[in-house]
Amino acid sequence: MFINRFPKMAALQKFRAIALGFDEEIAEAIGIAEATKYAIFKNLSYKRRKEKEQEFVTKKLKITPENLDEETFAIFKLQALNGLPFVGEKTYTREDYKRAVFMKFGKETGKKIEEWAKNIIDSCDKALLENEQKFFNECWKPHRDENPLAI
Asked: Does pTM surpass 0.90?
């Protein structure tokens, strides 16, 4: 079975968030938001993505951009809306994570993806986890094409 990068990034970011002190429910929301963010980053710069998100909350949700909290998930460069990660014009929850990792691939495969991700995060020191660029280059890049089922 082929497992694309999206659920692997989601699981890796979930365990990164847990290692950085977030509870599991929010960590799962961060995981899926981070995977979405990286997918969007392929096409948009951080500044442009942030502008689009602010434009969305103003025009579509009819709230001011000040309602987007930049502090809660600052370490991930994610904005928050109502206490949840907000990226790509959507807030993300643990249910979104479970849909991407478990419902799509099944319970057994989902557990293998999480086990793979947890092992990688356990091998990273906190300073690496706190630095997004180092995390991407040293934790994600070397492992992103691995098959979690083969480990």
From this structure: no
